[in-house]
Sequence to fold (385 residues):
Amino acid sequence: MQNFAELGLSKPVLAALQEAGYSEPTTIQRRTIGLILEGHNILASAETGSGKTAAFALPIVDCLQEPSDKPRALVLAPTRELALQVSSQFKIFSKQLGLKVVTIYGGAGMDAQLRALKGKVDIIVATPGRLNDCLERRAVDLSQVEMLVLDEADRLLDLGFMPQVRRIVSKVNKERQTLMFSATIDDRIGRLSNEFSEDPVIVKVNSERVDAATIDQQFVHVTEFNKDALLLKLLSDFGAEAVLVFTRTKKKAGWVSDRLQDAKVVAEEIHGDLSQSQREKALKKFRAGEIAVLVATDVAARGLDIPTISHVINYDLPDTPEDYVHRIGRTGRAGRCGTAVSFISEEQRHLVSDIEKVVGRTCDPNGATPPRKIIPMRRLRRGRR
Fold:
């Protein structure tokens, strides 16, 4: 198996990796870093938690090497949380080279971000909306960008960012190198890659099924009426200190958080209606163990990487199997084992078949007892078998 030195990375980057405690590259890193260093355009897919950020951040830092007056690398991310996470990785990897990384995202004051753009900038990590605002103010020059990354391109499409992305890309050097990373590669992503890059090398390292070795997936049939009681019972049985609960809507996240607090469970919510400072405060408390349960929507939790999360609970099933994989991938990280419990209500039963293809087994055996080590909840389901 190749190590980082054998991938062609320079000594300053290798030194930063060693200081940060990185030992061996992941599969996506082994298969893309060399190609990026050679100058290829890339269209890559890999599942959540596979190390996609380092797969593009390491070679970008290595290619830039020396600080510059104008930005030479641009990363577009669909959410503020992901932009901040990516930015933090760039800062770690470029520590030995003195490159300046600026993060541009909405939900925070623009003045500080505009001031940061006035100085020397090497790498910009941005959400499309806020970066467009900066372009309209003529506060940023992207003409010298040599390396463009569309991170989680599938989410950029889903969240309706494409008009903004197209405008941004039109301002970038046409001779650039384009790197696109996505959870999956489908026809939409293929069309997008043809629009923004020429002859990309396609790299797929997706597992066809979720890795059951690190995540114990459990499924419970439940009515909407009984979800709150079931959630409280599971939290009591788990005795866990870090649980992430997913809901489909912002309103439902608030509802679940309120019900948990009523039951004296230390819980908070994160979703798009909260300010950036409120979301960051909640995440900080969750990381520090000050709150036991974080209730989140998919968008708010995108890019969330907290290794101590022991349990993920799908209070509502997501609309796509890709989102299911992303959600349960928040646990079982960094070599740990995790548990994912999904509530299957009658209203969402139609979503089950696609998830079954991903997990490789039946989630909904015609109302029979759910498979594997499911916690019995018969008394909450009033006699349902």
Notes: Residues 215-359 form a domain with the Rossmann fold fold (CATH 3.40.50.300). DSSP finds 14 helices and 13 strands in the chain. Residues 365-385 have pLDDT under 50 and may be disordered. The chain has two domains: 5-204, 215-359.
